[in-house]
Specification:
Blueprint: E1 4-7, E2 10-13, H1 24-28, E3 31-39, E4 42-43, H2 46-59, H3 67-81, E5 85-93, E6 112-119, H4 125-130, E7 132-138, H5 153-164, E8 169-174, E9 177-181, E10 185-190, E11 193-196, H6 207-218, E12 223-225, H7 230-234, E13 238-242, E14 247-254, E15 257-258, H8 266-279
Parallel strand pairs: 7-8, 7-14, 11-12
Antiparallel strand pairs: 1-2, 1-6, 3-4, 3-5, 5-6, 8-9, 10-11, 10-13, 13-14, 14-15
Length: 283
C-alpha cells in the first residue's frame, strides 16, 4: 500500500504531492507541524497533538483547520495506508503569496494543509537493551522553541553532528543548564528522583514528557521540575530520551562519558514499558 497524503482537500499518493515554490513554508519556514505515532488505525495522543498544533498556530497568528476536520483526515489516512505501525505528519503553512514579501499576506490567504502517512521503520530493541550514546551541543536555536514550527535547521545540524559521532541524539545545553534534545525531551534520574527542566520559551511542551509525568505519579516515582544542570546530568544514575519516536530510550554515554553504571537502568525500563502499554491501549 503506498504512502498517502492529503493536500489542500485532496487525497493522493504521497510521492505525487506538490507544493508551489511560493509557499511561505518553503520560502520562510512559516508553518507549524506535528508527528503522531499510530498503531493500526489508532493514532496515539491525537487530541493532545491537535491541541498543540492549534496552540502553535495561534502563537504565529496562522489559520489552522478545525480539529474535527483534521481528525477525519487522520482516520482516512490511516484507513488508506493500513500499516501496522505508522507515522502521521501534519503541516500547516501560511499559504502561497506572490511576490515574495516578509510581512504576512492578507488574512483571507488560504493556508497550505498537508497530512501524510507512512510506515514506521523497523524497531531497534537493542537500544533498550544496550542503551545509546548522545553528545551535547550549545543551544543556538531561535528563542521560541515552545512553538512547534518547521524552522528546524539548527535541530538538523545538531542531530547530524550526533550522527557523525555515532550518537543517537544531540542534547542542547545553555549556560550550564540542560535544555532538551534535537527531537526529544531529556530526562535525568538521580538518587531515585526524576528531574525535568522547567518549561519555557526555550523548550517544546513535549507530549511524551507530559505522559511520563502521569506515569511517574502512578508508579510513585518522585518527579521534580526545576532547572537541571549539565553537571547533574553527567552525575545522573540514568538519562532517558523521551519523544513520539523514542519511547523512553536509555542513554548510557554522553560526550564519551559513562552515565551511571553504563547500562540501562530500572526507571528507563518502567517508562518504556508504560509508554508502549499506553500507546497500544493496554491497561
Amino acid at each position: 500500500m503506498p504512502d498517502v497524503a492529503y493536500l489542500n482537500g485532496k487525497f493522493m499518493p504521497l510521492r505525487a504531492a506538490r507544493v508551489p515554490v511560493m509557499d511561505r513554508g518553503f520560502l520562510f519556514g512559516d508553518g507549524v507541524y506535528e508527528v503522531i505515532r499510530a498503531t493500526g488505525l489508532r493514532p496515539f495522543l491525537v487530541d493532545e497533538h491537535l491541541r498543540r498544533l492549534q496552540s502553535s498556530a495561534r502563537m504565529l497568528e496562522l489559520a489552522c483547520p478545525p480539529n474535527a476536520l483534521l481528525r477525519r483526515v487522520i482516520r482516512e489516512i490511516l484507513r488508506r495506508c493500513r500499516y501496522e505501525r505508522s507515522y502521521v505528519y501534519i503541516e500547516v503553512t501560511r499559504g502561497v503569496t506572490y511576490p515574495r514579501k516578509h510581512h504576512y499576506p492578507p488574512e483571507d490567504t488560504p493556508p497550505t494543509v498537508l497530512v501524510a502517512g507512512w510506515a514506521m521503520g523497523p524497531e531497534r530493541p537493542e537500544d533498550f537493551v544496550r542503551g545509546v550514546s548522545c553528545i551535547t551541543v550549545e543551544d543556538f536555536r531561535w528563542g521560541r522553541c515552545d512553538i512547534k514550527s518547521v524552522n528546524l535547521l539548527p535541530n538538523c545540524m545538531g542531530k547530524e553532528a550526533a550522527r557523525r559521532r555515532g550518537a543517537a541524539e544531540a542534547i542542547f545545553v545553555r549556560n550550564g543548564l540542560l535544555i532538551e534534545g534535537g527531537s526529544s525531551s531529556i530526562l535525568v534520574v538521580r538518587r531515585g528522583r526524576l528531574l525535568m527542566p522547567r518549561l519555557g520559551q526555550e523548550i517544546l511542551p513535549s507530549l511524551t514528557r507530559a505522559l511520563v509525568l502521569k506515569i511517574a505519579k502512578r508508579r510513585r516515582i518522585p518527579a521534580v521540575i526545576r532547572p537541571v544542570t549539565v553537571r547533574e546530568m553527567f552525575a545522573a544514575d540514568e538519562v532517558i530520551i523521551a519523544s513520539t519516536t523514542a519511547e523512553g530510550v536509555p542513554v548510557v554515554k554522553i560526550d564519551g562519558r559513562r552515565i551511571g553504571s553504563g547500562r540501562p537502568g530500572p526507571v528507563a525500563a518502567v517508562l518504556h514499558e508504560e509508554i508502549v502499554r499506553a500507546r497500544e491501549g493496554r491497561r
